[in-house]
Every structure is written in structure tokens, then in C-alpha cells.
Sequence to fold (602 residues):
Amino acid sequence: MNAWIEKQRHLIDFTLASLARRRTKNLGLLLVYALLVFVLASVALYTHALRQEAARVLERSPEVILQRMVAGRHDLIPPGYLERIGRIRGVQQIEGRLWGYYYDPVVKANYTFMAPAAEQVKAGTLVVGPAVARSRGLAPGNTISFRAYSGKLFAFTVAGVLPHASELVSADLVLMSEADFRAFFEYPAGHHTDIALSVANPLEVRTVAAKLAAALPDSRPILREEVLRTYASIFDWREGLMLALLSAAIFAFAILAWEKASGLSAEEKREIGILKAIGWETGDVIKMKLWEGGLISLTAFLLGFVAAYVQVFRFGAPLFEPVLKGWAVLYPRFELVPAIDGLQVATLFFFTVFPYMAAVLVPIWRAAITDPDSAMRS
Amino acid sequence: MIELKSIRKAFNQGRPNEFWALNGIDLTIEAKKVTAFRGPSGSGKTTLLTIVGCLARPTSGRVRLAEDDISGLPERFLTDIRRSTFGFVFQQFNLIKGLSALDNVMLPAFPTGRPHRELRERSESLLDRLKLAHRREARVEWLSGGEQQRVAIARALVNDPKVLIADEPTANLDTALSREFMGILENLNAEGRTVILTSHDPLVVESAAVHRVVSMRDGRLTED
Fold:
């Protein structure tokens, strides 16, 4: 066992010395390789963290949202619907919600206006999302006016700015009192945008949805798990789009790495001949080259992955943010919570390290089985 | 003792450019003696040396090493024998550029898994013995021809082989360095090592250190 360990140590020593001898080639290779891992890992880490963030934020949203449909389009919930739902077993709370979209021509952006259920916001005041506050330069105490779709001008005082932590979904949010909301949009009294239901037991959500569909055939229940799935697929799609856009560059990098790894110079072939002549077995030469490939690919993988981690979680992925996040017109600004998916790392490792090892091994195998007497004739 | 029986060696066998480098060699090389193969270029000296040193297998014929027939052994066993029994000094020295003299000397012992410290001490003592202790950390390409050859000799001795094989050892050396080499060779032989070399340098083949000269031409032995 000790001899085996010593032998591996010798092989690693020789490998490191060999790498140092061809410093320029190996550094270039390491750089290209690390860059490839960096790009792939950045996209993977960022989209995974976005998915996690969306899931985390949506955890607090209602389990079921009921929308009324007219001719296949979302319509207002008329008075009496809340009463018609009545008491459904398993539903903890039923709440009619008021929200709508407002286009602000000043910053050419869409806001989501909402009236929270409880009287959290006093009449004449607003609580705005962080992106709205940023784009309009608002701070608590400021006054802002919006021209309603009816043409009337409404002035409000900013009572507060929503916390930064929930920015992913609240960036463009403007909260106002129910009275202000109805006046601003000329919303008919007793009508709501949709109905939110809280269900305590996740196993009962689908049963509640089925009962709702039966009780109100013109309405459609939207489950939170479906929203989460939609978010996940949006981020999956963005990740795919990003990778498709980058595929040419990734492919070029991969070819370069392959070329560098698999190209065996005449000098390297000569050295393999010498090693065999002085008593190295074919297996020893291959092991040594495997150590070499392993050291390069692991170092590149670690460098690329750590750089991607720092880029995504420390600097907010400035390179890929616009494509991967793409949030309407107002870009949310938020700190992603570091999240790493083991399977994702394993997949990335498999698709970057293994092809490299194969690229190294094939030409080495060919060179390593050459007759040792070639050294005598060089 | 190394015994060669009806050794023939072909290159590119079965192709239009087939070439027989050795054409029936019968030879016994005595242990603990210095044997030199002499002959013009293309006479088969080096090919014979590769077969004796287990670097290549004969196309036909038998090679016996101390009573054991080694001509049909698979590569792995041949490598073991080569590593433990033979040490090689090549005509071009064949040192690994970019590595220090000490690293080059240690190389043949790496696959044996000998403890690093022991290996280092052994390599340093060999360099010391060959008056190269002060150059052990120097890269081999910075050494002179004579120094490079001494590194090659130290490398050949690191696994303490019974047989030292040298191919045209003085081809790249001037007279003084050639004499120095023959002196080293004499000492190694005095330690009980068998030395087999090829040369057409009179300074080698006519040296008192060489016990037997085997002449070759066209892949055959001509006279002793």
C-alpha cells in the first residue's frame, strides 16, 4: 500500500514538473478551460438561484387564486361570488383581491397597482416597490401624481418603500387603499380582480380547486404549485436560450480545449519513449498523463466554478443578468441567496471533466504503446 | 550470463520495405565482463542491444537471461526485467529537458514506489560519485556534454542494475571525456556489473577495460 502511495506521489511530482515545463501551453489551456466552466456554471448557478428565490417568495402567496373567465379572458369577480363559495372544508381564509396594471409614461414602465386586504395603506398614500422608488426617485414623504386612464390626475404621498428582500416579485408594485384603488381605476363597487384562498393542508389543495370549479363553473382556480412550475419553466427556458446563444462560443472553447489536450507534440512523444525505455510501463505513462489531465481539469473546474459563484452571488451576475432575469421593463435589483444544487454540479463536472480526460487519454494511449526501443533510435 | 540463440529481427515485416536487421545471431555474453559490439552503421549493433536489453523482442530466436527464457514474455514482465536488471546510457543521452539533473536520475525508480527520501539519497550519492553533486539542481540542458552523459550514467544506475548497456557512449564526447567515461566504466565493472556497449570508436574497442569485442556486419557476427 505504501509503495502504491509512494508511486502515485512520484507520478504526481513528475506530472507537476512536466506541467511547469510547458507553462505557456498549460496556462493557456487552463484559462480556456476555466472560462468554459465559468460560463456554464454561471448560467446554471444563476438560474437555479432565481428558481429558488421565486419559490421562496411565492411560499407566502395564497395556495389557490380564483379568476373569473368571460369568453376565455380574465374578467372581474362580480359581487356575491365570495358568498357563493361559502364555506369549503379545508379553506382557512377567503379574500377578494384588487389589483391592476398601470403604464407610467414618465419612465415608460408598467406598475402593478394593488389594494391590500387589511387597511395597511391609508387613503391618499402609497407604498411603492423598490424599483418604482428607484425609477421615480421616491422616498417616504414625497408626493407623486399619476394620471388615471380616465384622464383625472391623482396625487399621493409616499408612505413607505417595500423591503428589498422581496424585490423579485415586488419590484414594480404600488400599494394603495381600496378606496383610492377603486377611485383611480373607476373600479365598480363590490367587484374584485380575483379571489385568494388559503388552504392549510397541501394535500387538500386539489380537492378545494375541484370544489371551486364545481361551485363556480365560469371561474378557474390557479394553484400556487402551478405558478411555481410556470416560473421554473420560464427560468428553464431562459437558461436554455442563454446556452443556445452561447453554444457557438462554448463549442469553440471546447474544440480549443480538446485540440490543446489531445495534441501530443513530438517532444512529448519522445519523452514517453524515453520513460518506457528506462523502465516505465505503458500503465505508468497513462497514469501519469491521467494525473496531468486530472490536475488540469480539476483546477480549471474549481477555478471556473468559484469564479462563477463569486460572479453570481457576490456581483449579481452582471454578465448574464439582462437575459436571465428579464423582468418586464423595471429590472428588479436583489441579492440572490447562494444556492447550489448537487446534481447540477455533478452534471457540470461530468460534462466538462470527463470529455477532457477522454481527450487526453486517447493520444496518450497511442503514444504509450509504442515500442520502447524508439528511444534508442531517436 | 545472457545467451542469444538464432536471433533474427525484421522491421516492417510483410511489407514491401521489409528489412532484416539481424540474421541469425548466436552469442553468449558473459556476466561481470565488458563486451563491445563493433561494426559499421546498419550492421545491427543497436538492434542487438535493444534485444539484449529487453527493449524489443526478436522476430525469431531465443534470449536467455541467467537460464530464464525471456524472449516470449509479455511487455509487463519485460519492463520489470528491464527496470531491475538493465541500466541504459543512450547515444543522445535522452535526458528529459526542463527537469533538473537530480529529477532525471530519479525517474527510472518512480514506478517502483521506493520511498522518496531513500530515492533522493541514492540519486544524490550517485551524482556525488560522478562528481556532479554541485550540478544536481541544474536543468539538464544547461549541462555540458560530459556532464549530461554522467547524469545519464547515474540515471542508468539508480535501480542498481546488474547490466549496464551503452549505445555509442563516446560518439558525442571528445577524447578527454571519452577516456573519463572508460574510467567510469572500468569502475562499474570492477563492482561486478556486466557492461555491454556498441561503438566503432577505437578508444573504446581497443581499451583494456573491454574484455571482448564482437564484430558485426549486415546483421551477422563476423569475428570476435
Remarks:
- Chain B has one domain: 2-218.
- The longest strand of chain B covers residues 19-29.
- The beta strands of chain B are 2-11, 19-29, 34-38, 60-65, 68-69, 86-89, 163-167, 194-198, 212-217, 220-221.
- Chain B touches chain A at residues 46, 49-50, 55-56, 75-76, 79, 82-83, 88, 90-92, 94, 96-99, 103, 106-116, 119, 155-156, 159, 167 (CB under 8 Å).
